[in-house]
Amino acid sequence: MIVDFLLIGAAKSATTSLSNGLSQHPDICFSDPKEPQFFSDPNWRDNLEHYHSLFKKKSAKLYGDGSTNYSKYPHYNKNIHQDIFEYNPKMKIIYMMRHPIDRIVSHYIHAYNRGHETIDDMNEVLTRNQHYLDTARYAMQIEPYINRFGIDQIQLLFFEDFISNPQDVLDSTFKFLGLKSTTISAKVLDSNKSFNRRVLHHKYDQPRTVIEKIRKVGFIIKNYFNGDFINQKPKLSSKTRAYIIDNVKDDIHYIEKLTGRNLSHWLN
Q: What are 224-244's pLDDT values in tens digits?
């Protein structure tokens, strides 16, 4: 087998909901887990057999990987574009973009609630951690893929289109992948909600022992009563907002030219 397409991000842009919808197509098989982050490791060539074992449906026509770390350059594997091309030069790339401010705020909330951030001042974090900005610099993330694979193998999507009419976006993606369309239940798409108080600290992701499993259950119960948990959007200062926009405005203009889309509302 070979993986045929990648849903590379952007992170916190409804990629899980999109992958949930795509996975309902009878001809598609996503990896389990959805985000194996396989090509983020420069030593991926040594682990191909394990990677392919993550795809359980052997009768599928197309296999997909939904790792959003593939669009967080220059973090992780700095040679990722060439590495993916080496693996499959016919790989199709799906990239969904969201208003940069909304995406960055959601990214921070998720990182804090998962235990990757310990500072609860969002404005401080967003102005000192380049990772959040880089992930929202959509031109910087997608241009190397376009240069390597060609625009015909890239599908650019918008979060707001998916939210307003998910079936239309799914239909366009099925067409991009060369598949017949199928109707997807909205219930499937809504299974991944923001501000879910059941979100786990990352250290509980893969409990290996009985004790670790018991601790995981205890954490879930405790989490319902945990006050140190962001369950509503914190306020972004006007200074931080201006800083973000100043850093991503050139990327926004690039995406406008590439897609013919008016994204002036992203500059506010």
A: 545 556 666 778 999 999 999
